Amino acid sequence: MTRQTAPFATTQEVAYAASLDAVDAATLAASTTNLGHVVLSGPLSLSAADTITAKASGTHADGTPLTAGVNNVSVVATTKDSVLLPSMTPGQVCVIANSGTATAQVFGAGTATINGVATDTGVGLAAGKTGIFVAVTAGKIFGGALAALLLMLLPAQAQNTVTMADISGVIASGGVAQALAAAFPNRRGCVVQNLSTGDLWISDQGTAAASRPSFKVPAGAQFACGSPASAVAPGAALSIFGATTNQAFSGREW
Fold first, then answer.
1. Cα distances (angstroms) measured from residue 12 to each of 8, 9, 16, 19, 24
2. Contacts of 73 (CB under 8 A, 6+ apart)
3. Domain covering 48-153 assigned CATH 3.90.930 in the classification
4. How sure is the predictor about 74, in pLDDT bands with cuts at 50, 70 and 90?
5. Whose C-alpha in 2, 152, 155, 190 is 20 to 30 A from the C-alpha of 203?
6. Taking the mean position of all CA atoms in its chain, how far away is CA 179?
7. Alpha-carbon span 169 to 248, nearest angstrom
8. Domain spanning 165-253 has what CATH number?
């Protein structure tokens, strides 16, 4: 009589399965460590809660707990009626819409701070405003009203007042390039309008001429460097060329 063995895997099968596990683990590790951003094809879907009442004269200890990703606090009867953010791990986001009539006070869960403010103090969210709160590290949340949050995210230089420098002038000698603006490593932008009836040429790559790589600026047109999408502009010296003496142009740099 032939005895049948139990369906155990052979040594080769075990080795093969182990190799597959190793490949899967490596693939998973690569996929999780390389996720620098996520591209969505539609609206981000978060849990939502409506008609929430903030705790009257509440404190960190007894604020109304928020449990959803998006929360509409519809009743805030008096200033500093409070709500309590859910416990958040790094990377999690909570949205609060204050559709009440007074400023709500928002507290972090447990010992979590918001914008570095003491745990038991919390931060205000004005009536009619929507706030986004993001957990950056354990126990540290940053956020607030959208306008304030955007200011927090902008580079410091973008929040500073810009000083304009006048670089207007005329072509001193037709057919001869001249300096438009000196090298300015911290230049954030510039604009030059051709006020004459002939073409002007501007270059940030050395002496301007009526050819590449200079930029042609027809009569009435403008040359601009930098843009709202960029915090920097070419910092090299700018040169300008015109074929006719006294061609006028108006310009600014900042």
1. 11, 8, 6, 11, 19
2. 52, 53, 54, 64, 83, 96, 97, 98, 99, 100, 104
3. no
4. very high
5. 155
6. 36
7. 6
8. 2.60.120.770
Structure tokens at 6: 């139990």
Q: Tokens at residue 114, please?
A: 């918001």
d(CA 254, CA 251): 11
Q: Where are the domains of the chain?
A: 48-153, 165-253
Q: Residue 210 carries which side chain, given as an amino acid letter?
A: A
Residue 142 has what pLDDT?
A: 86
Residue 252, classed as helix, strand or coil, is strand
Closest to 222 measured CA to CA, from 168, 165, 163: 168
Q: Residue 174 carries which side chain, given as an amino acid letter?
A: G
pTM of the model: 0.47
